[in-house]
Structures are given as C-alpha cells and as structure tokens.
Specification:
With 580 residues, this protein is an alpha+beta fold. It is 37% helix and 16% strand. It has helices spanning 2-27, 56-67, 72-86, 124-131, 150-161, 166-179, 185-192, 205-209, 225-237, 240-243, 245-258, 264-269, 296-306, 311-314, 319-339, 350-353, 356-363, 472-485, 493-496, 529-537; strands spanning 44-46, 50-53, 96-103, 108-114, 181-182, 221-222, 273-275, 278-282, 285-289, 387-393, 399-405, 453-457, 460-467, 500-503, 520-523, 553-559, 564-569, 576-579. The protein is globular.
C-alpha cells in the first residue's frame, strides 16, 4: 500500500510539474539577457531596406523586389499580392486597402483610401425588406459583399510612385499561387475554422479554400491556380485586367448566379482616392492616421485625451496607466459610433473631433479613480475584424504603411472559383438605422476598422507601423506608440509587451454604440494579478475569454543618428521582419 501511495504521489507530482512547465512555456520566452524579460525576439536592424509582414515568404518577396531595383511602393504591392495567396484567411484581392506613404522625393506623407462601395442596385429599404427585423447585416449575407477596392489601390500606388513594371511586381505572387507554398502554424490554425463555419457552404468557397474537403494543415502545400490566372490578367492589363474584361464579366456572372449584387458597372465605377492624413502632436512626435470612413482618428482622439497626464510616472501597465487608456478609449469610441462614416454621404467633423477645444471637454469625463459605465457621444460642432498589415522601407527613404483585409477572416464566403478569391464582407460595417451617418446606401463606403499608422519626428519620417484586429486597432496603435515614445521600449519590445483590449457592449453593426455597461477588459498574461485586482476595485470588469485576439503588429523605424532601419513583427503569430 505504501509503495502504491508513493507511486500515486509521484505521478501526481509529475503531472503538476508537467502542467507548470506547460504554463511556463505558454507564459513567455526563455531568458533573454540583453532584453526585457517580456521580449520575445530582437529587433531586426539593416542599413539599406526593411520589410515586415505577417508571413515570412511575403517579407522575402518585398526584399527581392527592392534588391531587383524596385522601391518600397513596388515591394509593398508585391508583398500584398503574395500574402493574398499566402494568407487568404485574412486578406485578398476581394478586399479593401488603405495606405500611408512617405515619399522621399516629395518629403511628404500621402494617404490612400482604396475601400470599395456598396453595389449600386441595392438600397437600404431593400436590405431591410429582405432581411426582416435583424439588427445587423449577417456576415455571410450577399448584402455584406461590397466592391473590391484593393486592386485599384495597387494601381493607384503604382501609377504615382512605382518604378518597375507591374508584371515584375506581381510575378512572385503568380509563381507562389501556381506552384504552391506551405501553410505556417498560425495561419493553419485560423484556416481550420472554415471547415466548421457557414463559409463551407458558400458558392465556390470549398472548391478553392478547402481542397479535398478540408483546410490545409501546417506544412501542407496549398496551390491556387485560378488566382494565378487572375493575377496574370492584372499583370498584363493593369486596372482593366480586374475591373473590366474577362474578370469583371466573370464576377458579374458569378454574382447573378450566387445571389450577390456586384455588376460590371459597379466594378468600372470603383476608384481609390488620395486623402490628406490627419495628425496629432505628442512632444516632438506626430501620430498620423487616415480620416474616415476608417477609425484612425479614434487613436488620435485617445492620444489627445491622454496628453496632459503624466503617464510615465504611473508606470507601464500599472492599474492607473491602464485605467487612463481604457477610459480614453471608451470616450473616443462613443464618437466613433456616432460620427465616423463615408464623408461623401455624411458630415464628418474630423478637425473638430481632434481639436483641443473639443477634447478638453471630453477629457473632463475621465474619472481618474473609477471606471465609467456609459458615455454619450459629444457634439464636436457645438460652438464653432481579420486583416494583414505590412510595412516596407527602401534605400531612398520611402516608407509604406499598408493594411488590407477581407473584414472577418475569409470574408463573405462568396467565392468565384474560376477567379480564386473570396469577396469581402465589409458591408457588415453599415448601419441599418436610416438616420445614422453610416446607414447602408448604394455607392457608399461602409465604416472601416482597418487603419495604417505612421509617426513623424520633427516633420521627418520616423516610424511606419500598424496593429491589426478590428476594434483592437486604435487601442493597439496607442499602446505601441506610448510603449516606445513614453517608456522607451525598442520597436520590437513595444509590440511584445503585454496588451489590454477593451471590449464594449457593441451593438449589432459594430459601430452605433460602443459601450452601455462599461464593457470588459481582456488582459494578457504579462499583466500582474495585483494590477487585475486593482482594476476590479476601480469598477472594471475583466473578460473571461482566453481566446481574445490582441492584434497583429508590424513596424519599421528609421534611426536618423545611426542611419539604419529597425524592424519588428508580431511575436504572437507567423510574421517576419527582415532587411538588407
């Protein structure tokens, strides 16, 4: 009996040790003696050029293009085209694109909005009549499908800044799509969810993305010859290769058969637009975002609210620090829900929303000791959600901050199998409230969550970066910005350190109201138990969700003194930063 008890005790002890070892492995990396304990890898440093994407092969494509004579803009397009094949569960030519471009020649930051519009034949009344009393547009509904804008974005970027032929830019993506590439770990895990979702039954989806009836496993080679042929049309004919001719005709034919609404006329009318970036100063630095129909100015509103507070003295990821960021987010997101929309269809008071006059009034709502339960949107006029992000920098000093998405994972699931890509479901971002600025309308661009970021220092290019992940993006932009600017973390550590994500009681449509009951906070394991208890004592609710997505980060920093680029990538997924 004693011998049996000893064996049992040893077995229990072994199990406990194994479990502790598992938890230790999950909690972070091994010891890194030349870096903070939370750092998971070193920054990449290179003298000539840098690329950081969420897939190593896409990063290599960008570097190859630059080494063959292309510039950062050429390389960004090439990387985006390649990753549309390599990571189809997050992006593709059926989605939209936004970019910030620092032009070394012009010494100026440019902004591009390449988001698609609702089909011209569909009205809000038709959507409501067809869907009934549903509170939002379903993600796999034909009404979620909007016109793809990404390819026109490539053409606009190339026409203004490109230096080599589009056929050379798209050649690597065509080669990978035709010959195949192995699927890495994080993407394989995400892809596998399509087997159990409604996407599986969408017309054409399984034919392209579930070969043999299943998602490709980690290390399995995936091919998409139909996509290669579509890319070849764009390489040969430019914009007309997608928005006119055979591809456009096939899109219209497919939509008529499958029940979505894009026509050849909708495709011909789709055009990306150049827009002026919007910035907020913070000491010597300026954070730049794009204006709506995206949510970039939410990050600027947060930064404006936080300006007067001595964040450094609070301590990084202390309860006081996190409380201030969370409350600033809540305030900004109420305005996001009320005002952010396509400016061609609604008045969007961008300058007023980030003005000190308006922000000073909103800042007074921030209770430094207690979590708020609800806010109303302000009135700035008074008195006067899967994505890829990549960044590339070249030897000339050009820098590109580019983000591209299908919206949720693969998007709508509507897949013209002969073309090899899936249509986005960005139409879910529309409101079904007729009086709302973001109400569904034909030819209108929906509210967007994807936002590229850029930082200048004394009017010179400093850092190109982004944090993917739906509503996480403005929160992630601010956390990385403050991690680096206020707390002095290097560009990689600024992304590695533990993050928070506030999740409001977001109503259907994802935008109209952000928070009704205070929402809840998800915290990564690097935030201490003591801080968690202090946040609870302040009235914050902690989410019980171990699967929270804290965003996907890439960044490139130009160190003027050293005359080198520093690159960083998301350590929580498959990405890679590399240079030469």
């Amino acid at each position: 009996m004693k011998k049996l008890m000893v064996v049992l005790l040893c077995s229990v002890s072994t199990l406990l040790v194994a479990q502790q070892n598992k938890e230790d492995l999950l909690s972070g990396p091994g010891d890194r003696y030349a870096a903070p304990s939370f750092a998971k890898r070193s920054s990449v440093i290179a003298p000539h050029a840098m690329a950081a994407t969420s897939h190593p092969l896409s990063t290599q494509v960008a570097l190859d293009i630059m080494q063959e004579g292309g510039n950062a803009i050429d390389a960004a397009i090439a990387a985006n085209a390649a990753i549309g094949f390599l990571e189809p569960n997050s992006n593709g030519m059926g989605g939209d694109l936004f970019a910030l471009i620092w032009s070394a020649k012009d010494q100026k930051l440019f902004g591009l909005n390449a988001s698609g519009r609702a089909p011209s034949q569909v009205t809000l009344d038709r959507v409501i009549e067809d869907l009934g009393s549903v509170p939002e547009i379903p993600r796999v509904s034909p009404y979620s499908v909007t016109v793809p804008g990404a390819v026109d974005g490539w053409i606009k970027l190339h026409k203004k800044f490109g230096s080599i032929d589009m056929s050379d830019i798209l050649a690597p993506a065509i080669r990978y799509a035709r010959d195949g590439a192995p699927v890495p770990q994080f993407i394989a895990a995400s892809w596998s969810g399509a087997e159990r979702s409604q996407l599986k039954g969408q017309p054409g989806f399984a034919d392209v993305f579930l070969p043999g009836g299943k998602a490709p496993e980690e290390g399995e080679v995936f091919k998409n010859t139909a996509l290669a042929r579509t890319l070849e049309q764009i390489a040969l004919r430019g914009r007309a290769g997608f928005y006119e001719g055979e591809v456009a005709a096939e899109i219209e034919r497919y939509c008529l058969e499958a029940g979505c609404f894009i026509t050849k006329a909708d495709l011909a009318a789709q055009h990306a637009v150049w827009v002026e970036p919007v910035g907020v100063d913070y000491g010597d630095f300026t954070l730049w975002e794009l204006p709506p129909n995206g949510q970039g100015i939410a990050a600027l509103q947060m930064l404006q609210i936080l300006k007067p507070f001595d964040l450094a003295s609070m301590g990084h990821n202390s309860a006081a620090y996190l409380h201030h960021l969370i409350e600033a987010k809540k305030i900004a997101f109420e305005d996001r829900g009320r005002y952010y929309a396509d400016p061609r269809f609604a008045e969007v008071p961008v300058n007023q929303l980030i003005s000190e006059h308006y922000i000073s009034k909103r800042r007074k709502l921030l209770n430094v000791d207690q979590a708020s339960q609800s806010f109303d949107p302000g009135d700035p006029r008074a008195g006067r959600g899967e994505t890829i992000y990549l960044t590339v920098a070249d030897s000339l000093g050009n820098m590109v901050s580019l983000i591209q998405s299908n919206y949720s994972g693969f998007g709508s699931g509507f897949t013209p199998a002969r073309l090899g890509f899936c249509f986005q479901n960005r139409g879910c971002g529309f409101s079904l409230e007729p009086s709302h600025p973001n109400a569904y309308a034909p030819g209108k661009r929906p509210f967007h969550t994807i936002i590229p970021g850029f930082i200048t220092k004394k009017d010179k290019p400093y850092m190109s970066y982004g944090v993917m992940g739906g509503n996480m993006q403005p929160q992630g932009h601010i956390q990385v910005f403050l991690n680096h600017i206020v707390f002095g973390m290097d560009i990689q550590s600024a992304g590695d350190v533990a993050r928070f994500r506030h999740q409001g009681s977001t109503p259907p449509g994802g935008q109209v109201r952000q928070m009704m009951d205070g929402g809840c906070i998800s915290l990564e394991s690097g935030v201490s138990e003591e801080v968690r208890l202090q946040l609870k004592a302040m009235g914050h609710k902690l989410c019980n969700n171990r699967w929270t997505h804290y965003g996907g980060y890439q960044g490139i920093l130009w160190n003027e003194e050293q005359e080198v680029y520093w690159g960083a990538t998301e350590s929580r997924s498959d990405g890679q930063a590399a240079g030469w």
